[in-house]
Amino acid sequence: MAFQTTPRCIRACVCRRNENWSGLLHRFQQRGERIMIISSPKTSWTMGGMQPVISDSAYVSDTAVVIGDAVIAEEVMVAPGAVIRCDEGMPVFIGHGSNVQDHVVIHGLLEKKIIEGHQRYSVYIGKEVSCGHACVIHGPVCIGDGTFVGFTAVVHSSEVGKRVFIGHGAKVIGVRIADGKYVPHGAVIADQETADRLGPVPDDL
Fold first, then answer.
1. Each residue of 32-54: pLDDT tens digit?
2. Do 40 and 12 meet the contact criterion of CB atoms below 8 Å apart?
3. Does residue 88 have an active-site annotation?
4. Least C-beta-crowded within 10 Å: which of 7, 101, 105, 167?
5. Model pLDDT for residues 125-166, shown as the tens digit of each residue
6. Cβ-count burial 126-143 (b if 16+ within 10 Å, e if not)
7. Given a cut of 50, is residue 120 above it in pLDDT?
């Protein structure tokens, strides 16, 4: 277990599954620092006890919340107020260099999964994905490398390709979106026919 801290942020916090978080929590509490990176609670639908795994090169704000079976890869940024809650749908994976901006919510439905590679995930976010301010990403969801999810947008029960632009306030629900497609600001994409008609990302974006 290795971690460092800087004022008002958790710079790195690494823990493998089945390791004990109590010592880590105690050390942060001794320093007077808040930490909301915790194992999943026991509920009527899960035994709980699943712990986040966070790269030592990732940044997680001390006002963000990470609960349960989340894997946060190298150089990911999780901004203030973001919530990654893996107490129902799990696991959640956030790939290298992605960012989860202020007040983003990531959560998933119980027992509903997507398959990426040979693994099953509740939410899979690829490399260099930008999850814009206050968007909601609700599994089962897969978001491909280099995609932008706009401010307050909603992505639910969908497979989104690589280098997709999802505009501010848009809703993507229950569809597959091919690589390189453009979802305009405020658009509602809730059937496959509409998703298939989407055009390419404009050159000026």
1. 555 678 777 777 667 667 889 99
2. no
3. yes
4. 7
5. 999 999 999 999 999 999 999 999 999 999 999 999 999 999
6. bbbbbbbbbbbbbbbbbb
7. yes
Among the listed residues 19, 88, 111, 159, the single catalytic one is 88
Dist. CA 156–CA 109, nearest whole Å: 10
**Contact 189/150 with Cβ under 8 angstroms?**
no
Q: Tell me the pairing of strands 119-121 and 83-86.
A: unpaired
Tokens of 159: 């497979």
In which element (H, E) is residue 103 found?
A: none
What are the angstrom distances between the C-alpha of 49 and each of 17, 43, 69, 90, 91?
9, 10, 9, 12, 13
Residue linked to tokens 């453009």: 182
Q: How many CA atoms lie within 13 A of 5 on its CB side?
A: 16
